[in-house]
Amino acid sequence: MNHKSFDLLGSVAIVNFPREARQREKKKFAEKLMQNNKSIKSVLEKTGKFSGRLRKMKTKFVAGEKTKEILYRENGCVFRFNIDKTYFSPRLSNERKEIASKIKKGDNVLVMFAGVAPYSIVIAKNSKAKKVYSNEINREANKYAQLNIGLNNLKNKIELVSGDIKRVARNWIKTHRNTPTTHPLFDVIVMPRPQLRETFLEQAFMLAEKGTRIYYYDFSKQNETDKVVERIKKEAKKFKRRIKILKIKKAGEIGPYRVRVRVDFIVY
C-alpha cells in the first residue's frame, strides 16, 4: 500500500493514509509499524487537517493502546498533550531550538499562539531569558501548558497569559503605563502563527519597544515569500513603526509548493 510518512509523537504514530486505503490494510500497516519499532505503542490515523484558530486535528484509532494522550520529549524538555484537543508539531523542533539560541541574557520574551507551550518551554529551558510570557486562546491547550511548565520545573521563569491576544495586548499596555516593571514591553516577540488571515502585527507593534526583535511565521507559495515581507513592511508603515529585516528563512514545507516562512526583523 502506498502511504505517506508518519509523525512520531512519543510512543504514538500518526499516519496519513491514502483515501482509497481499506481499514484492514490500515490495521495491517499499523501492526507492522509497531512490530518494527518497539517504541511505538499506538497508531492513529490523521482524518482531517488542522482547522480554525485553535488548530485542532482529527484522528482515528487504528491499533495498539487506545489513547490520544501524548508524552513527547525534545530539546531537553518534556510535553504532555491530547492530539485531538491541542496543536503540536514535532517538525518545528529545530525551529524552537534555533529561536532559543537567539535569546539574549535578560530578555523578556513573549510567545503568541503558544499552544501547550513548546516554544515557551524550549526558550526558557535553553536560554538565559529573564522571563517568558506564554499566550494562548485555547483553554484546553492552556491546561496542558500549565502542566508542562510544572513538568519542566519552569514555574519561576514562564508566566501564562491566557486569552485573545487582542484583549491581552490592550490590557497589558494599560497596566504597563502604571507598573512597567511588572508588565514590561518585550525584547523578543515570537509569532508561530497558524494559517490566519490576520497578521496580528498590530498587537506585536503595540507590545514592542525600540530594539525589540520579532520572529514572525507565515505561509506562502514556494516562490512568493517576498509577499510575506511586503505585508510586514506595509503593516509597520500602517502602525508607524520602523523596522529592519534581519533574515528570511523557509522553515519547512507544509504542502505541494507551499512553505512555512520565518521573517526575523527588529523594531528601531
Key descriptive features of the protein:
268 residues; alpha/beta; GMP Synthetase, Chain A, domain 3; Rossmann fold; 2 domains; seven-stranded mixed β-sheet; 7 helices; 13 strands; 29% helix; globular
Give a topology summary.
Blueprint: E1 6-9, E2 12-15, H1 23-36, E3 42-46, E4 59-64, E5 69-74, E6 77-82, H2 93-101, E7 108-111, H3 118-126, E8 131-136, H4 139-151, E9 158-162, H5 165-178, E10 186-191, H6 201-206, E11 208-221, H7 225-238, E12 243-255, E13 258-267
Parallel strand pairs: 2-3, 7-8, 7-10, 8-9, 10-11
Antiparallel strand pairs: 1-2, 3-4, 5-6, 11-13, 12-13
Structure description:
- This protein has 268 residues and is α/β, with parallel strands linked by helices.
- The chain is built from seven helices and 13 strands.
- The strands form three sheets. Strands 9-8-7-10-11-13-12 form a seven-stranded mixed β-sheet, sandwiched between helices. It has a four-stranded mixed β-sheet with strand order 1-2-3-4.
- The radius of gyration is 20 Å and the shape is globular.
- The model has no long low-confidence stretch (mean pLDDT 93).
In short:
This protein is α/β, with parallel strands linked by helices. Helices cover 29% and strands 33% of the residues.
Let me know the average pLDDT: 93
- Side by side, the strands of the main sheet go 9-8-7-10-11-13-12
The proportion of residues in beta strands is 25-35%
> Total number of helical segments?
7
Give a count of the beta strands, DSSP E runs of length 2 or more: 13
